[in-house]
Design brief:
about 450 residues; alpha/beta; L-arginine/glycine Amidinotransferase, Chain A; 3-stranded mixed β-sheet; 18 helices
């Protein structure tokens, strides 16, 4: 049975703005309060999706969320009409309005953790929506995320969905940004690699001192249990607390893996030698051979990795067995990073080619190519069961670019978020989008 990995990219939402909401994310904080361009952001993301589709990769789309989150603001005590709620929040608590308008759901690497059917006890693809409880603006995403994923992967014969973990610090879960999977072939049993920043209950694990560690060991273990993963197919590794304090808020800012390849920075993990050995041993038992590419700190400093998002890249397996690395323009602009990549290709590593994309609007808010996609390994029968409306085609690309041009503003500053018309624009756009993607009713305003 054939299998493939599908990248489902997040569409950037109509309220894309630089709110500087993500403490510990250097780019997010550095560009706070700058004027954004939602239309450009959405078109940049769509251009990457179409380019990968044109290269022969199966590409999907994940819808954005309704913003501002009026239902959430009502839960916090604001009342009146929708316009009155917005006016009251703008007057009384502007930072809360900014958080309630965040388009951060575009970074769907945080949407959920996904385990392919080859790894799970019941032979279904499992999804657990991430609670993202470290930040308010992201903690409000998972109810809609769950509905959207269920609309995309509706066939219960092939797909299983789990609610987000308890929304408490001990089970902080940031989704696939701290999870990757190694395998010989996407349809073969693989090894799922869960990376955590801290343990909630075991004081033996060190914690960062400056920035929060968002993913807990306990959350990773809970997801593995929910998905029915065997101990032989799971490895847990801890992020280096020192790099978290340098702005590595998720593992996908310092490491990326796919197939049999792990591409990581020398300072990414604690106990690296033992960790890589465990990955190698468990993958070999499943017929694979780990190829670990360690980037030395002497060639690329952590600061360069964070600013360029070298590791927040997409590592894609091509038909000839080689790997393609999709990086943001910022990698080419960083001389040390770009020189390293040229040497890497020349050395005949498993990564045979690097392609550069302009994702400036996302990058300035703290998310690169890998943040924008949720990977789902699917057998051909499972792919056939996916809602066909969310699989990228040339006609869908045209429809979505026209949709963006009709509904998105070309500038967004903090004052624009106070405009009650923005909510109406967002709802009109999303109502049309659910028809384009054939999702049905998934948004609060559609559910009544």
């Amino acid at each position: 049975m054939k299998s493939c990995e599908v990248n489902f990219d997040g569409l950037v939402g109509p309220t894309h703005n630089y709110g500087g909401l993500s403490y510990g994310n250097v780019a997010s904080q550095s560009n706070s309060q700058q004027t954004s361009n939602p239309r450009e952001a959405a078109l940049q993301g769509l251009a990457k999706m179409k380019a990968l589709m044109d290269m022969g990769f199966t590409q999907g789309v994940l819808a954005p969320q309704e913003r501002p989150d009026i239902a959430g603001l009502r839960k916090l005590g604001f009342s009146g009409t929708d316009a009155e709620v917005i006016a009251k929040v703008a007057k009384q608590d502007m930072p809360l309005l900014v958080a309630s308008c965040s388009a951060s759901s575009m970074w769907v690497a945080n949407a959920a953790t996904v385990s392919p059917s080859a790894d799970t006890a019941d032979g279904r693809v499992h999804f657990t929506a991430a609670n993202l409880n470290c930040k308010y603006h992201r903690s409000i995403e998972h109810p809609t995320t769950s509905r959207v994923l269920q609309a995309m992967f509706a066939d219960q014969q092939h797909f299983a969905h789990h609610a987000a973990l308890p929304a408490v610090a001990q089970f902080g879960d940031e989704g696939a940004a701290n999870h990757t999977r190694f395998c010989r072939d996407y349809g073969d049993a693989g090894v799922e690699f869960f990376v955590f920043g801290r343990s909630a209950f075991d004081t033996r694990y060190p914690a960062p001192q400056k920035y929060p560690a968002r993913q807990t060991l306990e959350a990773s273990q809970a997801v593995a249990r929910l998905h029915g993963l065997s101990a032989e197919g799971v490895v847990y590794g801890q992020q280096n607390p020192a790099v978290i304090d340098q702005g590595v808020f998720h593992n996908d800012v310092i490491a990326v893996g796919n197939g049999e390849v792990l591409f990581y920075h020398e300072d990414a993990f604690l106990n690296t030698e033992a960790l890589v050995a465990e990955l190698h041993d468990k993958l070999s038992r499943r017929g694979g051979r780990l190829q670990a590419i360690c980037v030395p700190r002497a060639e690329v400093a952590v600061e360069d990795a964070v600013r360029s998002y070298l590791f927040n890249s997409q590592l894609l397996a091509r038909g000839d067995g080689s790997m393609l690395l999709i990086v943001p323009e910022e990698c080419r602009a960083n001389e040390r990073v770009w020189n390293y990549l040229q040497r890497l290709i020349a050395d005949e590593s498993p990564i045979a080619e690097v392609k550069v994309f302009d994702l400036k609007q996302s990058m300035q808010n703290g998310g690169g190519p890998a943040c924008l996609r949720l990977r789902v390994a699917l057998k051909d029968t499972e792919l056939a069961a996916v809602n066909p409306g969310v699989i990228m085609t040339a006609p869908l690309y045209d429809s979505l670019t026209q949709w963006v041009d009709r509904h998105y503003r070309d500038r967004m500053g903090e004052n624009d978020l106070t405009d009650p018309q923005l909510l109406l624009e967002c709802r009109t756009a999303l109502d049309e989008l659910t028809q384009i993607l054939k999702l049905g009713a998934v948004y609060p305003f559609q559910l009544g």
